[in-house]
Amino acid sequence: MAIIRPESMDFSKQTFSAIIYGSPGVGKTTLALSAPNPVLIDFDDGVSRVRASHRAPTIVCNTYEEVLTDIDSPEMKEFDTIIIDTGGSFVTFLKDWAFRTKTDAKTKAGQFNSLKGFGYVKSEFASFTDKIKTVLKKNVIYVFHSVEQADKDGNPIQRLMCEGSCRNTVWNPCDFGGYVQMIGNKRMICFSPTQEYFAKGTHGITGEMPIPVLNDSTPNDFMTKLFDKARQSIIAENEAYGPLKAKYEDVMGDVRALVDSVKDQETANQALDLISNLEHALTSKKESGAMLNAKCKELGLKYSKETGGYVPKDGGQ
């Protein structure tokens, strides 16, 4: 077992999982192909709609088992990003896989058991994403079409075009996801959720971002730059966290010593005063309060808001 402390963690090769969705024809696949060194798994024959200069090596599969075989093949080592186009069609492939391979995914009448079957689909979707990120060490991008529905008040909302409840759970294993739309005459990808659409922003990727207009001489590298930005955000956060963590450890050392010194009401209130005046970091203030309360409870003391200190539980002084 190897324990890596935060200050020694290396995020320079951090991989990401993302969802890109929007209406047909808005350029989702081309945007996904702007990720670093991509290979496309084309589930719905959409690569022909991508401009020739922006296409990438493409895999066409007939079953989910073929997908698993292909991503484990030696040829995949040269790629950094796997793009699933579309995620809705991929879920259909997973549904077919579950129907064929899982006994209880099929009803006695020979129909797909939605409750059991989609349970397998959702679990396998998460496992597939995790495998690409943590085992194969690659980015993964799911491209989805959007479909307009109405919320409980009748307002239009954009949802992933996907079978069953998977349209909600596929977000869980993904780091971030953006809704692609036209705002005025500009194509934008939006990573902050609104009443109209869901989105997911993490690692410094939030808000609306304009998508560059491409021609044959323009580099298609939007997602590559976005991944770099997210990676640098993680590195910067970790570097800033290091000094705070060291300060937290020092403070908590003092707290433990003070709590250990508590023997009665007088020493409890002395410790309370000293702990309150420490220069806290991260969660040390909350944790120190919990530690002191627990020690005082053992001694039959309770905190009194009236006195601003600890008093006997029975109300005596």
Q: What's the β-strand tally?
A: 11
How many distinct helices? Answer: 8
Radius of gyration over alpha carbons?
A: 27 Å
Distance between the amino and carboxyl termini: 52 Å
User: What is the total domain count?
Assistant: 2
Regarding quaternary structure, how should these chains be classified? single chain
Structural category: alpha/beta
Strand content: 15-25%
- The CATH superfamily label of the largest domain reads P-loop containing nucleotide triphosphate hydrolases
Would you kindly provide a written description of the structure presented here, covering whatever features stand out?
This protein has 317 residues and is of the alpha/beta class. The chain folds into 2 domains: 14-220, Rossmann fold, CATH 3.40.50.300; 234-312, no CATH class. Helix content is 38%, strand content 19%. The protein has 8 helices and 11 strands. It has helices spanning 28-32, 64-71, 87-101, 114-135, 166-169, 222-260, 265-276, 284-298; strands at residues 17-22, 38-42, 58-59, 81-85, 139-150, 156-160, 176-183, 186-190, 208-210, 301-304, 309-312. The strands form 2 sheets. Strands 1, 2, 3, 4, 5, 6, 7, 8 and 9 form a 9-stranded mixed β-sheet that branches. The protein has a two-stranded antiparallel ribbon with strand order 10-11. Strand 10 and strand 11 form a beta hairpin. Helix 6 (222-260) packs antiparallel against helix 7, helix 6 runs parallel beside helix 8 (284-298) and helix 7 (265-276) runs antiparallel to helix 8 (284-298).
